[in-house]
Amino acid sequence: MRSAISHPPPAPLAPPTHPVAEPAGPGTDPALADAVERALRHPQDKIALILHLSRLAPPAPRAHHIRVARVLMQDCAQRVGGQIFAMQNRDLVLLCTALPENQADAAAPHHLKATLARLFIADVPDPQRLTSFWRLDEAPDQLRAYVAASAANLAPAKSHVRALAEEMPASALSLAALEEIAAHAPLAELMIQQTGMWLGPDRKSPLADRLKPAFRQLAVSLTPLNLRPVVTEAMADPYLLHHCAARLDARLVQVLHDDLRAEGRLTRVAVKGGLPIHVCLSLEAILTPGFARMSRLARAAGVRLGIEVSLMQSCVEIELLDHVRSLLEFLGFSLILGPLDAALLSLTLPAPLNPDEVKIVWSANLAEAAANPKSRLSDTLARLGPAKFVLQGVDSEHAVAWGQSRGITRFQGPFLDQVQGATRMAACPAASACTLRQCVSRAAAQGIAGRTGCTNPALLDSSIMPPT
Amino acid sequence: MSGARADQAEALQDVLRQSELAGASRRALLLHTDRLPPSLAKPHHLRLAREALNSLAAADRAQFFELSRGRIAIVWRSRGGDELFLAMQALGLLLSDQPDGQAPTLGELVSLYDLPQQTVWLLDELAEEPPHRAPAPTRPMDVQQLAGLEAALAQADLAQFARWRTIMRLIPAGPPKAVLARLETEPAWEERYFAVHAIAENLYPDRGVKADPWLFRRLTRTLDRRMLAMLSVPRDLRAIGTFAIGLNIATLLGPDFLRFDDALPLSLRGEVILNIRPADMLADPAAFLFARNFARSRSYRLALVGVTMPLLQVLDLEAAGFDYLQIKIAPDIVAAPEALIAIIPAETTLIVTGLDRASDVRWAASHGAKLGRGRALGAK
């Protein structure tokens, strides 16, 4: 369940976000233009330091990015006499007096540039690109061009800021709503699926012809509940989210149990050695009688289950993981660690946890880390072997090509959803009434409401057998 | 301990010793019936718990041992897959009789050991003294009680719950070979914290504040903010020396910490240690890396606390970049100190806690610990 919310298979389950009011008053674009023109009249010893937060990929910049960067820049402005401007696109601009390069003061502008870049090492492959440092007497045109581009609104106009939980004191109301969801959300209606694909090394035939289903991930999407912002904000707290997910897990296991007993649609594709089914569960949920009952039915039906657990919980409750591993080993189910993003992979060594499979999340940072043969990621790939990996969050053919270059053969993500959707639409006589986006969204949904509009729902669940 | 049970405990220790000496592969299960709440510890429950283990009697060379406090140990050969699964399932069903949160989890009720590698863990568990006070309530708070507690904490005067303890510097005196004989200590810094249990007992005496680990971690953020507020008075800050506080990453990147940072006197810049827990580091690794580099830019020192040896095998300490690693002395560390020493990067200083005996202190000092905490160090 955990990943259903925090790391969704299809798009509708984006992490909770909430808009932050645009900066207003002094320090927006017009004020900057005036200040730049004034500074350029006497440009000697003046510098501009720009932190291009607009270059971060959503959901960044996060609230703490802006808050902390601003404090550091403010410190510098106070030390050397300067002014900060908050741009509409979230960039921060510092106009101030330069200090000599040999000045050791950590708040000096030339040191601040390096400090700011260091903060973002986990967020972009090349954090140096996030800052520009211009001496006004040497590069007046660059600053003028930046101001002009801002005025013309060439930079991204608006972003959403995901706040860290400390900014969101969960009210009793939102917490009560969270409990209500955990206890009563109609899970059968909220189930969604995503098919992970297998892609062999042969690159001669078209991509769509070479893809074969490898597994099906089942999860719960809370998006159809149209949660009030106050609730999604509470769920942005990873600990409240875990609490809620742990409670939902027991109910998710019951949904699977009921579906297996009724030979229902959720698990039909998996019976008698069909597609493996992947489900995210908390460690506690795997050690419940409910899981034992469900797994007995799954084994009897020949269903292969892969149980995905979070690396964070596995690390802090290693003894519990040992129990889980023993149990899954006995049942013949796979233990999957995931989802692991580039930042998590840079801090951990998952191999000693002895997982059967590992799901890693595609990003430019991931590719950057893997490019270094001495990186932890390269070491992890080599130790576990590429056959154990699934590349998640695949959003382009480039991501697939990267995975293939590392020997990975299983992929999951919106790009593959679209390829499958296009294949379905090519075979569907009623496709002319639908868009690709609608087809992808309906294929993900398992509830009746989510499939409304499709006149050929059998095709949404169709699947061919995985390679042997 | 009754005579019969003492005999059984000795018999179990014999089996463990033989397994260790012969290098014979075994598995052991320890059922902690003493961890069952009163509502699940009635005679019929205990009988059911014992019966749940009967399936393991079919395991290869299974031996049962009745231990003190109603605990039961079983040792057998091979993995015991089918038998173990059935036993765990039966125990899980026993626990499922209770409403949510009123029973221990299966993981709390049962410990599994791979022998001979984990013999020392099992021996340590067997040697544990019985608890002298009533067990903490296992019923967790629900989120509404959490909201109430957070609201109460935001207003309450927490000064009476503020605590501190001293991290001591271990200073070898004399020539290297005499290190064990001559060891001096001096206070290095104070760790400041709130007595969470005392706070919770005051407000919700019938609930286990840590029974739901996720809600407990959430609660620590509120306590972080109160601690920072208490410490953000420049006049008070000037009166204290080097100190450490435990913070969540979200707190470290929040407005309360920035206010604290703003109020920090120049004399304390570089003298504050921020204790970070692994769960918080891994819950949002990108935020952790951001926070780490921010803290460094403001001259804070960072300590990773609350780790165990198995966890250290999975963390990349070099990449995490902590100034200090704080670990509690434990049998697995004492048994294989080289594993710990090999993991610690050169730039990270080892702090060993739980140094309650003079021999612990000598062990820590002779295995690379420069700092320590515990009753044997004479400080609070």
How is this structure best described in words?
The complex is a heterodimer of chains A (468) and B (380). Helix content of chain A is 45%, strand content 15%. By secondary structure, chain A is an alpha/beta fold. Chain A has an eight-stranded mixed barrel. Chain A has a four-stranded antiparallel sheet with strand order 2-3-1-4, sandwiched between helices. The longest helix of chain A has 24 residues. Chain B contains 18 helices and twelve strands. The longest helix of chain B has 20 residues. The chains are: A alpha/beta (468), B alpha/beta (380). The interface between A and B is large, with 68 and 68 residues.
Jot down its keywords.
heterodimer, A: 468 residues, alpha/beta, eight-stranded mixed beta barrel, 15% strand, elongated, B: 380 residues, four-stranded antiparallel beta sheet, 18 helices
Strand and helix map with partners:
The complex is a heterodimer of chains A (468) and B (380).
Chain A: H1 2-6, H2 29-41, E1 46-51, H3 63-80, E2 82-86, E3 92-97, H4 109-119, E4 131-135, H5 140-151, H6 172-184, H7 187-190, E5 191-199, H8 207-210, E6 211-220, H9 229-235, H10 238-261, H11 265-268, E7 277-280, H12 283-286, H13 289-300, E8 305-309, H14 311-316, H15 318-331, E9 334-340, H16 342-347, E10 357-361, H17 364-371, H18 376-384, E11 389-392, H19 397-405, E12 410-411, H20 414-427, H21 436-444, H22 457-460
Helix pairs in contact in A: 2-5, 6-9, 6-10, 10-13, 20-21
Chain B: H1 3-22, E1 26-31, H2 43-52, E2 63-66, E3 72-77, H3 81-95, H4 106-109, E4 110-115, H5 119-127, H6 143-155, E5 162-172, E6 183-194, H7 196-203, H8 213-231, H9 234-239, E7 243-246, H10 249-252, H11 255-263, E8 272-276, H12 278-283, H13 285-297, E9 301-307, H14 309-312, H15 317-320, E10 324-328, H16 331-335, H17 337-343, E11 349-353, H18 358-366, E12 369-372
Parallel strand pairs in B: 6-7, 7-8, 8-9, 9-10, 10-11, 11-12
Antiparallel strand pairs in B: 1-3, 1-4, 2-3, 5-6, 5-12
Helix pairs in contact in B: 2-3, 6-8
